[in-house]
Every structure is written in structure tokens, then in C-alpha cells.
Amino acid sequence: MRTIIVGGVAGGMSAATRLRRLDEQRHIMVLERGSYVSFANCGLPYHVGGVIEDRSALLLQTPKSLAARFALDVRVRHEVIAIDPATQTVTIRDLDAGMEFEASYDTLVLAGGSSAGVGPTAGILPTHTLRSVDDVDRVLEILGSVDGPARVTVIGAGYIGLEAVENLLARGALVTLVQRGPQILSPLDPEMVTPVERVLRDHGVDLRLNTTVTGARPGIAVLSDGTEVPTDLVIEASGVHPESGLARGAGLTIGPTGGISVDARQRTSDASIYAVGDGVEKIDALDHTPALITMAGLANRHGRAAADAIAGVLDAEAASALGTGIVGVLGLTIATVGWSEKRLRAAGRERTVIHTHPSSHAGYYPGAKQMAVKLLVDPADDRILGAQIVGEDGVDKRIDVIATAMTGGITASGLSRLELAYAPQYGSAKDPINLAGYVADNVRAGTTRTTQWHKLRARQESGDTLIDVRSATEFASGAIPGAINIPLDELRARHAELPDGPLIVHCQVGQRGHTASRLLTQLGHDVTNLDGGYLTWKAGTTSTSPACLTKETR
Questions:
Q1: Residue 382 to residue 348: CA distance in whole angstroms
Q2: 31 close to 56: Cβ distance less than 8 angstroms
Q3: 465 has which bridge partners?
Q4: 3-state secondary structure of 47
Q5: 496 exposed, middle or buried (CB, 10 Å; 0-12, 13-18, 19+)?
Q6: Can you tell me whether residue 56 is helix, strand or coil?
Q7: Residue 370: partners with Cβ closer than 8 Å, 6 or more residues away
Q8: What CA–CA distance (Å, rounded) separates 415 from 399?
Q9: Selected catalytic residue, list 22, 40, 42, 82
Q10: Strand partners, 450
Q11: Do 126 and 234 touch, CB atoms closer than 8 A?
Q12: Which residues are bridge partners to 97 per DSSP?
């Protein structure tokens, strides 16, 4: 039996090596149009920044090592230019020899991934992505050829764009970051990206939002607002699109997202052809619709699943995708899983929103760092719909716990009952995950009522009174307009001073606000707690893109 795999790296090489472990007799050919078949593409920006000093550390396997260990026929600089499903053949172009030939297959795996555009600066300014080893080689060559600090314009403020910014700064570059939309990291909600935008500006990044690069001339990038930015190098990170041209040419079904449509075992509309990786549609775990989710973990998992199906030894279906992601930016860690509030609102889905601001570990142990946690919950069944976390330490393990809970069907309230590892330097007796679960349980049970930062102004305008239960010192350092300050410790004695009508209480992060709401409710007042307190309100109202949420009222 003969299997041809088109494309290497995560999806293709996972399929190839898994298939070999399952079938020693099969002939497996891997065709890669680039110069490297197995490299750490997620590590490329960090070689630019010098974090990964040795370039060879990025090169995981070579055709020679793969042949020795797995008996794979790996050919780099070989591009598949056509597929004929009727004859089960592919046409291959040897890019170095300049010749074409055909090869037959019993099964074919498409792992072409995704590609990025080059934009309007290509051919005028040095313009590169950070998607291949060759890209990084050229970027480092340009950075090294400039006298003084290199002036770099990065287009796109997603994960790759932000990783590029961080590592370019480490190289001493002067960076302009251009983002088409009103905020960086568009999958996140606006109040969650405010600290990230702040840290970028604090490190000298010239952040341009609601802006595009429209043209160039030597040494200059021209922006849509008319600004001209001195530029020695452009990094294109504005997004990718699935490599589906081969599949289209072969008559395979392309899904509504533009990715290759596959079944639960990665089989395309042709029973002999499979597809994996960034060029393939996944099934969203929340609404079970096709989605494009470009994550290395999914590519590896689905490459393995395709190999299992081809070998016929296992009958496991590919799991749906949560879209779990994480990125580090200048000391901050930003992580997300599932849907954002923006996306839920756009889809018309009801949701309960929970903000907390716990410490990464026990506050009495040195080095504890505050994080911002946002949990999105289905009010009908307490199902977790998504989460976002921003902080310095401990973000990664908390997002992984939530992703695991979502996969396992653990509810938001159920997070309160998870038994998680605790020692003062690692966490707290009430872990941040448990705390989010306690809040979810209180909201679900009606023990407390909450309102969101983007609804506060409308509620104040309709007559609700805002009570700030922080200390007088905290209140003096910054307060929400219209708030009355009665510290929590004085509230029981002074509650008769409160006006009639609905009250909204708040503290710094929400915890004292909850205590105040419980006290006042039992004293006969109509009380709502401002979710996430002053910190969340401030982050939201100072965000560069609150409009997506602020139209909501009560």
C-alpha cells in the first residue's frame, strides 16, 4: 500500500510517523515544497528575539533522520501541483531540478496548512512573514544590515504579530504595530486587552488601531490615516487563509469557511483522500458548526487521527475544537478558550458573565501576581461557554483546567468543587478556578445578582444608585462618576443613609461588593453587585474598543 502525504510540519509529520508505527509495510512518501519538512514553526519568532539562540534547535527532523528512524521517503523542495482522483495520482514538481513527474497513491493526505498574503508593501519594502525558517533567516539578515535600531512595521496584532513585536523589541528594533480593527487580539473582549495594549505602549510600541497599511515607497510605509512611517522591514502577520487550491482542483468539497471539508475521521469527500491541519475545517465545540481554527495541537491530533483511519486499527472520531490559545507579551500571559462575550452577543446567545481578579498564588507568599479572569456561562444549564485570563503568572494552568472542564462537561459551578494542587508558592486554598466557580454558583442560585461594566452607565441614567464600598483612600485614588462612598465596614451602621430604589454596590474586584450585596439584601434593599468591581469597569471604559458591548442596557 502506498500513502502520499502533501506537506510536513505538524499535521503531515504526525500523520506520517503515526502511520509508520501502525504499518511497517506501507510505502509512505512525504512531499514538502519548502526546504524543511519538520521544524518548530511556533518557535520562529523567538529565534528572531534571541531567546532560542541556536538555529539548529528549530530543525526537529531532516529527510535523512526520518528515513533512518521511520523509513519515510521524504522529499523537500517537491511541490504537488495537481491531484487526479480518478487515477489516484499526483503531479509533482521538483523545484530544484525543474522537472515534473507523477506518483500514484492508495491514500493521500493533504497537509498543506495555510498561507499569508504579502500585502501592499511587497516589492517596495522588505516584507516577510514568520512562517518558515527561510523567513526568519531573511528577517535576521535585514535586522543585521541596518545601521542603528531597525525600524519595523508589524501588520496584524494577533498571536504571531504580538510575538513578533516582543522579539523585535528584544533585538532593539523600533516597532510600529498596525491593526485593522479597534483592538489587538480580536478574539478577546475589550476589557481583557486593555492591560496588553498598555504594556505595549509602555515598552515604546507605536500602536496604530483602526488602521491599515495602504502602500509604500522606499524606506516608508504609508498608512490608511495618511501617516508615513519610516520602515526598514515589514512583518506581515495580518492573518492566514487555508491552502485549499489543490483540493478545489481535485473537485473535493470545500466548506463554508473556505477550508477543506472532512468527516470525523479526517476523510474528504473522496474516500481515498484525507486532510489535516490549518487548511481543514474543524467542528466548533459549542455550536457544532464548521470553523477555521489554526492551532498546532489540533494539527498534530488530526494528523494522528487520519493515520489511525488509514491503518484501520482504531475507530476514534476527532474531537470538536474549543480554540484554546495562549500567548506571552512582554511579561504578560494572555489565554483564551471557547467563545468571547462579543461572539456570544453577536450570535444572540444568552450568557452569564463573571469577572474575578485573584492572585496567582497565596497572597502572603512573596511574588503573588494579580490576574484577570473572565468566565462566560450558559444561564440555562450552567455550561461553560468560554474563558479569558490575563496576568503574569499562573495563567497557563488555569486556562488548561477550564479547557479540560469544558471537554469533560464540568459546569461553571462545578469548578468550585475541583480538588486542585495547593501549596503557597503555587496557588491558594481557594484556587482562582475555585473562586470563579463560587461566583458562578452564587449567580446561578440567585444568592447574588450582578451587572456588567458596560451596562452600568445606562443603569445609573435610569435611576440606580452606585455605592462604592471601598475604603476612603481607595475611593480618593479613583472612582466611578456618580458613586457614593460608604466603606464596607461602615455599611451596616450607615445603611439607613442609602436612598430608596435600586442600588448597585461595588468594590475594587467584586469580593467586598458581594459581601455588601448580601448584607443589604438581608436588610431589605434592592441590590446588584458590579461584576469584577472597579478594576473591570476601568479596564472596560478605558478600552480602545468598547463599542461592541456598550450598546447593551439593563
A1: 17
A2: no
A3: 503
A4: helix
A5: exposed
A6: helix
A7: 357, 358, 359, 360, 391
A8: 12
A9: 42
A10: 529
A11: yes
A12: none
Quote the CA–CA distance of 96 and 130 in Å, as a whole number: 23
Gap between the Cα atoms of 496 and 188, Å rounded: 42
365: which residues sit within 8 A by CB, 6+ positions away?
A: 424, 425
Report the alpha-carbon distance of residue 36 to residue 61 in Å, rounded.
9
pLDDT in tens, 296-309: 888 888 999 999 99
Q: In the structure, what pLDDT confidence band is assigned to residue 47 with cuts at 50, 70 and 90?
A: confident
Cell numbers for 260, please give them. Answer: 477543506
Which letter does DSSP use for residue 413 in this model? G
Q: List the beta bridge partners of residue 174.
A: 151
Q: pLDDT per residue over 461-515, tens digit each?
A: 999 999 999 999 999 999 999 999 999 999 999 999 999 899 999 999 999 999 9
Residue 247: CB partners within 8 Å, gap ≥ 6?
83, 110, 254, 260, 268, 275, 279
| Exposure class string for 282-292: b at 16+ Cβ within 10 A, else e | bbbbbeeebbb
**404 contacts: CB under 8 Å, gap ≥ 6:** 410
Which amino acid is residue 499, in one-letter code? P
The CA-based angle 433-435-438, given to 5 degrees, is 115
Beta-ladder partners of 478: none
Known catalytic residue at 548: no
**Cβ proximity of 492 and 525 under 8 Å:** no
Over residues 378-392, the mean pLDDT reads 96
Q: Are 435 and 371 in contact (CB under 8 A)?
A: no
Give burial (CB, 10 Å; 0-12/13-18/19+) of 40: middle
Collapsing DSSP to helix, strand or coil, 540 comes out as helix
Count CA within 13 A, CB hemisphere, residue 285: 23
Residue type, position 98, single letter: G
3-state secondary structure of 422: coil
For residues 300 and 11, the answer to whether their CB atoms sit within 8 Å is yes
If you search the block for the grid coordinates 478574539, which residue do you land on? 187
The single-letter code of the amino acid at 157 is A
Q: Are 142 and 233 in contact (CB under 8 A)?
A: yes
- State which amino acid sits at residue 120: P
Q: Which three cell numbers stand for residue 496?
A: 439607613
Q: How many angstroms separate the CA atoms of 175 and 227, rounded? A: 15
The sign of the CA dihedral 440, 443, 449, 452 is positive
Residue with cell 488601531: 209
Three-class SS string for 452-469? CHHHHHHHHHCCCEEEEC
Q: Which three cell numbers stand for residue 89?
A: 495520482
- 336, with CB counted inside 10 A (0-12, 13-18, 19+), is buried
Burial of 444 (0-12, 13-18, 19+ CB in 10 A): middle
Using DSSP's 3-state secondary structure scheme, residue 201 falls into helix
**Cα–Cα dist 80/392, whole Å:** 44
